[in-house]
Amino acid sequence: MPRFTYQVYNGGQKRKEERWLYGVTETKFVKDYAAAVEDGYDVMLMGDFNLPNIDWSTSMIKSGSPQATIDAAEELLNLMDSHFMDQHVIEDTRSTNILDLFITNNETIFQNIEVVDTPLSDHRIVKISLTDDPAYQPILTTKEFPAASSAERRENSRQS
Asked: pLDDT (tens digit, 0 to 9) for every residue of the chain, 160 residues total?
């Protein structure tokens, strides 16, 4: 189950939220996100969304996908569309799919996105360089590895 950390910014103020998601349709997350956008915050969503059925060059859902992934993809695309969001990762992050996404409603908050190989995962690392604007600070993202014990996961969640 993915853990998403997201931060919302309004000028020099920021609010960090972190939650476990059971899917893109997780109600509280979507409501919190929508409220942040409506309040004028710059929002960045990032992580492994595990939606290989979206063609990010066209923002269209690929045919032949299972209904559950079609529903999740439609939910994400509708959320992005209704809040003027764009997905900025354009290179494959796992096999021939873009699964690890960086979505924002303000493309001026980052300078560069780089996707690099790593021997530590079957996913490639997405490196995001944020602008030098003091209102925006670097984001520390975490990945939950299944091999970690529950005590380690609890300790890691307390530290973030």
From this structure: 344 445 555 555 555 554 444 444 455 666 676 677 777 777 788 888 888 999 999 999 999 988 888 888 888 888 888 888 899 999 999 999 999 999 988 888 889 999 999 999 999 999 998 887 655 554 444 444 444 444 554 555 555 5
Residue 9: CB atoms within 10 A of its CB come to 19
Domain with 98 in it: 3-154
Any domain includes 160: no
**DSSP at 85:** -
CATH code assigned at 149: 3.60.10.10
CA 134 to chain centre: 22
